[in-house]
Specification:
This protein is an all-alpha fold. α1 packs across α2 and α1 runs antiparallel to α3. The longest helix has 30 residues. 6% of the residues are buried.
Length: 90
């Protein structure tokens, strides 16, 4: 399972758990939903840190692969054998 799916399901599950805990508290439904949303966001910052870091790592790797493929395609279109690494370094 990808890290993004795992993190998203964790966030949704945490929201549902907080909402279930607040279900029997006497308050307006809109207020109950807002409290559950804010509380689950704060809790996920601490409880889901490893999944969030894993997801960020996967996203960074994907961005690097896309950048490398883009450089490879640009050099192929320009008729070069290797990507132009001097342009990025300079």
């Amino acid at each position: 399972m990808s890290a993004a799916v795992k993190y998203t399901l964790g966030r949704i599950g945490l929201f549902v758990a907080v909402l279930a805990a607040l279900w029997f508290v006497e308050m307006n439904m809109f207020l109950r939903l807002m409290v559950a949303l804010i509380s689950s966001a704060a809790l996920s910052f601490f409880l889901l840190r490893s999944w969030r870091d894993e997801m960020a790592g996967e996203m960074a790797e994907a961005a690097e692969r896309r950048r490398a493929e883009k450089d490879r395609l640009r050099s192929a279109l320009a008729g070069e054998d290797e990507p132009d690494t001097e342009r990025r370094d300079g």
